[in-house]
From TrEMBL:
SUPFAM superfamilies xref list: Galactose mutarotase-like, Galactose-binding domain-like, Starch-binding domain-like
Record CDD domains: RGL4_C
Domain (Rhamnogalacturonan lyase) ranges: 296-361, 375-541
Domain Rhamnogalacturonase B N-terminal: 28-278
InterPro entries in the cross-refs: Carb-bd-like_fold, Gal_mutarotase_sf_dom, Galactose-bd-like_sf, GH-type_carb-bd, RG-lyase_II, RG-lyase_III, Rhamnogalacturonase_B, RhgB_N
Organism: Aphanomyces euteiches
Organism domain of life: Eukaryota
GO biological process: cell wall organization; pectin catabolic process
Protein name per its UniProtKB record: rhamnogalacturonan endolyase
Length: 543
């Protein structure tokens, strides 16, 4: 009995020395229930062995961990099988913690003198999860400031479900407004006067997520706790099936407050020397390189993105506006992929490519083109509502926000109004009918015409309807709505579809014509007006 007591005391002392002495290493708590890991650079992390919940984040003698709840995958994995080991990886001492249960394995790595927790997540369909995230719950006494649009301090009511809130002045806040597109999300985080906590993404962090380069998800909610998250998969405006496999690597990085200037603050290269379930090293990957042929100048001076996806993985690379139309993909897992070229966010070319462990050369030709000159166009065909009324605000606030221009029935007059007068979205029962008034000569009205409506996102089985001059109704076409709301959550990207209507000459007149846009949906509308069936516009044209 005396020996056991001495052993526990020694372990407790080891943990204490590890923290106070700032040497790199780990120890087990005196009760045997926790591991204490010290990076040797004033960061000590305490983790429950039974669940791998992080219960303390002590950085430069500041407790950053919120105590009422912990830091972990999702809201905690419950009971797991866990192990800790000190090994040498890529020439450096490395502490590895492995936490496993059926369907999921979470890996943690600590490296000498680095204020970072390196991570990777392996998830299979054996464990059904509505969403997959890593969530750091942080102490607002030390990590006070979150992303402003997701900070709920001054709100006094929920205005939509329990995730969109408003202040007395009707300034809206939501965790959804913290999101940024995956393609732009390399570093995101929160901070206090003397400490900052940031997720830093490797170039493979999103390869097993869903949604593509323009998808985005929750990064922060700042309320009682300052909640910092990395969403790997979720049902938030989801448009494709979940991918399974290895997510990451990614890192949680600790600073004196300011965000890291670049992802080079960490070095993910040591993962190449590990043997993690589902992780594919660079030596077993390949690239795609090629040239985009754009014979009709569709891409012009637009930003160009080349994306790749299959059921197992997704990747993308960017080409600067006006740059040479050649590309090289990131390192990709071998397999067959659909390659898509985007003009901003509008898909303009696709091709199938096969990736091997060598470099694959694959050129692609832009097939998308407007072969006819429209009589008029509203907006720019780029896969986004950019340029329309409220489009500059919709990603960071609710449509009902006091800073928004009012959504109301409106008549847009071609030749008089500009795209910035046209609403980015049409909500049934809120700003319908949305009418377009335009002039035709007798010759122009003497033949059938094509009317195109580009929809970037639809909600509640919505699709547009058209009525011409109060006497001809266009057909009600199919819906391509996402299954969950988006336009009230700061999202305008979904299942893109171009609705095309042929208007007979009998419906047109010489002089003033009017097309009234409405919404068709078999779904009943709820009490909240902005949860009504809706569509978000890309562009509209009359040919």
């Amino acid at each position: 009995m005396g020996a056991a007591v001495l052993l526990r005391a020694a372990l407790a002392l080891a943990a204490f020395v590890c923290v106070e002495g700032q040497s790199f290493g780990y120890a087990t708590s005196s009760d045997g229930k926790k591991w204490v890991i010290n990076t040797g650079n004033e960061l000590a992390v305490t983790m429950l062995r039974s669940s791998c919940d992080i219960v303390s984040l002590l950085y430069k003698n500041q407790e950053l961990q919120y105590k009422a709840k912990y830091t972990h995958i999702n809201s905690g994995l419950g009971s797991v099988t866990s192990q800790i080991a000190s090994t040498t990886v890529d020439g450096k001492n490395t502490i590895q913690i492995t936490c496993a249960k059926t369907g999921i394995t979470q890996y943690y790595f600590f490296r000498p003198n680095e204020n970072a927790i390196y991570m990777g997540t392996y998830h299979t369909s054996d464990l059904a999860l509505g969403e997959l995230r890593f969530l750091a719950r942080l102490n607002r006494a030390t990590v006070k400031s979150g992303i402003p649009e997701a900070t709920l301090d001054d709100t006094n009511r929920a205005i939509e479900a329990t995730d969109v809130y408003a202040t007395a002045a009707n300034i809206t806040r939501s965790k959804f407004y913290s999101a940024i597109p995956f393609i732009d999300d390399q570093i995101h985080g929160v901070y206090g006067p003397k400490a900052g906590v940031y997720f830093v993404m490797s170039d493979k962090a999103y390869e097993t997520s869903i949604g593509g380069p323009f998808f985005k998800d929750i990064n922060n909610q700042c309320t009682t706790a300052n909640e910092l998250s990395f969403y790997m998969n979720s049902d938030h405006t989801r448009t494709e099936d979940y991918r399974y496999g290895f997510h990451g690597p990614y890192a949680l990085v600790f600073t004196d407050g300011a965000a890291p200037s670049s992802t080079s603050v960490v070095n993910f290269s040591f993962f190449q020397k590990t043997s993690l379930q589902g992780f594919v090293p660079d030596s077993q990957r390949g690239r795609v390189q090629g040239t985009i042929n754009d014979p009709t100048g569709v891409l012009a001076s637009s930003n160009v993105v080349v994306g790749f996806k299959n059921a197992q993985a997704q990747y993308w690379t960017q080409i600067a506006a006006g740059g040479k139309l050649s590309f090289q993909s990131p390192l990709m897992k071998p397999g067959q992929y659909t390659m898509t070229v985007y003009k901003k966010q509008l898909a303009v070319a696709t091709a199938n490519v096969v990736v091997s462990t060598a470099t694959t050369t694959s050129d692609v030709t832009v097939a998308y083109t407007h072969t006819k000159t429209p009589l008029w166009t509203i907006g720019e065909w780029d896969g986004t509502p950019d340029g329309f009324l409220n489009a500059d605000k919709i990603h960071k606030m609710h449509p009902s926000d006091a800073r928004m221009s009012l959504f109301k029935p409106y008549t847009f007059t071609v030749g008089k109004n500009v795209a910035g007068d046209f609403p980015l979205a049409l909500f049934r029962g809120v700003n319908d009918p949305l009418a377009i008034s335009f002039q035709l000569t007798s010759q122009q009205a003497s033949q059938s015409r094509t009317f195109n409506v580009g929809v970037t996102l639809a909600k509640s089985n919505a699709r547009p309807t058209i009525r011409v001059n109060d006497k001809w109704d266009g057909p009600v076409l199919a819906t391509y709505a996402a299954k969950t709301r988006g336009d009230t959550r700061g999202v305008t990207t979904g299942n893109y579809f171009l609705y095309s209507y042929t208007i007979p000459s009998s419906a047109l007149v010489a002089g003033t014509n009017k097309i009234a846009l409405g919404i068709a949906s078999g779904n009943p509308d709820p009490a909240e007006p902005f949860l009504h069936a809706s569509v978000v516009f890309d562009g509209i044209e009359f040919i």
